[in-house]
């Protein structure tokens, strides 16, 4: 039986559609199968690779930590073997017990945390515990141990001992009952410091720095003089602390020559020449001392309201009649006007922008002890006995080379009175500056 063309065409079209539909369904099924296979294989492999990567990172980190601990322990062993002056080494457990498991916090700073400690012999001490992982921490710690250990002066904080064990770095220092100068001036610790105490502190800090520059062998630049690094004893004797950033002149040198170094310090206290040229001299400490002196006079911060204290003080330096207006309001009228002129003159000279025109600390101390009232300076400041200590020699011993009076100073007589205020305006540097001249605005 024959089939007509009209009836056969739809049959052929039907067969084609069915074939196409089946092909698409097959392709989709294949793709889904492949996708599931990729997931089944890829996800576990990715998970395994991720876990392996994390494990490798942890192993590297652990190994690195072991190497760091080993390095620190080796440095600690070397430190224990280094010939040091007469102070002790402490075990970690002993210091933990002395601080009630490090709960007696009395302060914090850039170095770490400070604790009050009660040693077994009854001594009250301050434990300075360095933060772990601190960059350049071991170098700072080494300086903190070696420098106070060989420098002896009543206006430098005394080092009792240290601990370098199990990655810990701690200094055992004499306890300063009245905390830091910064706490009294800016954190309102206790009643405001009276004028006489402020002048005694100014002389004490000057004496400590003069010793570092003129009597230490080799000389030392502190490099971080600021109010938080001036500590006060029970009777408000000022002592310079924190030698972690100090720089030492070359061995055998009697004077501090300029040293090129990275800029380190605290904003507001740093010598502008040091900041701009990276050249450090003893005059950098002189500038910082001038800022501390301005803090004592004004009660202001080194940087306040985005303006440096030195810049703020310029208007007073240029007009003598305005000088009383810079005095800390907490003092009221309870200050000596003649002494105010003296210390403002010193602060002005110390903070000159050009370092060569600033006085030395020897000149500063001489001026303060001779021109401030007799109740401001004690016998030890007006006629200090300095222990000049030599560097560690080949024998590994530290020797005292001389006991001497303070540089070329003459003792201040009890009948001494403050010099009259400068007659001219603005306030003039007199004996302080190597090349006295009338100041102009910066």
Automatic annotation (TrEMBL):
Sequence segments annotated as region (Disordered): 400-442
Keywords: ATP-binding, Kinase, Magnesium, Membrane, Metal-binding, Nucleotide-binding, Receptor, Serine/threonine-protein kinase, Transferase, Transmembrane, Transmembrane helix
GO molecular function: ATP binding; metal ion binding; protein serine/threonine kinase activity
Domain Protein kinase: 100-372
Active site: 224
Residues involved in Mg(2+) binding: 229, 242
Biased composition (Low complexity): 400-427
Signal sequence extent: none
Domain of life: Eukaryota
Gene3D superfamilies xrefs: Phosphorylase Kinase, domain 1, Transferase(Phosphotransferase) domain 1
Protein name in the entry: Receptor-like kinase
Organism: Nitella axillaris
Name of encoding gene: NaRLK9
């Amino acid at each position: 039986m024959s089939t007509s063309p009209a009836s056969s065409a739809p049959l052929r079209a039907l067969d084609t559609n069915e074939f196409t539909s089946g092909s698409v369904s097959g392709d989709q099924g294949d793709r889904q199968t492949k996708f599931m296979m990729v997931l089944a294989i890829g996800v576990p492999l990715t998970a395994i690779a991720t876990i392996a990567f994390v494990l490798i990172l942890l192993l590297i980190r652990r190994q690195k930590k072991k190497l760091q601990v080993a390095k620190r322990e080796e440095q600690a062993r070397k430190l224990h073997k280094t010939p040091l002056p007469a102070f002790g080494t402490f075990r970690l457990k002993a210091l933990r017990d002395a601080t009630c498991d490090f709960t007696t916090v009395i302060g914090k700073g850039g170095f770490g945390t400070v604790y009050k400690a009660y040693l077994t012999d009854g001594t009250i001490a301050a434990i300075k515990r360095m933060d772990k992982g601190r960059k350049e921490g071991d170098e700072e710690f080494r300086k903190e141990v070696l420098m106070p250990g060989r420098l002896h002066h009543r206006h430098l904080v005394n080092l009792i001992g240290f601990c370098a064990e199990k990655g810990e770095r701690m200094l055992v220092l004499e306890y300063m009952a009245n905390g830091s100068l910064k706490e009294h001036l800016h954190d309102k610790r206790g009643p405001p410091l009276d004028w006489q105490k402020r002048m005694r502190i100014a002389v004490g800090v000057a004496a400590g720095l003069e010793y570092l520059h003129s009597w230490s062998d080799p000389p030392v630049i502190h490099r971080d003089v600021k109010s938080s690094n001036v500590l006060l004893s029970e009777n408000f004797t000022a002592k310079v602390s924190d030698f972690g950033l100090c720089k030492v002149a070359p061995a055998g040198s009697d004077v501090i020559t300029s040293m090129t170094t990275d800029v380190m310090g605290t904003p507001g206290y740093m010598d502008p020449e040091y900041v701009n040229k990276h050249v450090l001299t003893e005059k950098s400490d002189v500038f910082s001392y001038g800022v501390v002196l301005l803090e004592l006079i004004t009660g202001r911060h080194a940087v306040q309201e985005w303006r440096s204290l030195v810049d703020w003080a310029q208007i007073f330096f240029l007009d003598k009649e305005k000088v009383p207006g810079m005095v800390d309001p907490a003092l009221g009228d309870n200050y000596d006007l003649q002494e105010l002129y003296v210390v403002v003159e010193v602060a002005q000279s110390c903070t000159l922008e050009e370092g060569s025109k600033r006085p030395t600390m020897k000149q500063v101390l001489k001026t303060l002890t001779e021109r401030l009232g007799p109740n401001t300076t004690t016998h030890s400041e007006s006629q200090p006995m300095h222990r000049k200590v030599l560097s560690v020699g080949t024998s590994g011993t530290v020797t005292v080379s001389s006991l001497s009076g303070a540089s070329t100073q003459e003792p201040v007589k009890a009948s001494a009175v403050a010099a009259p205020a400068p007659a001219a305006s603005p306030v003039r540097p007199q004996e302080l500056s190597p090349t006295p001249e009338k100041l102009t605005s910066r």
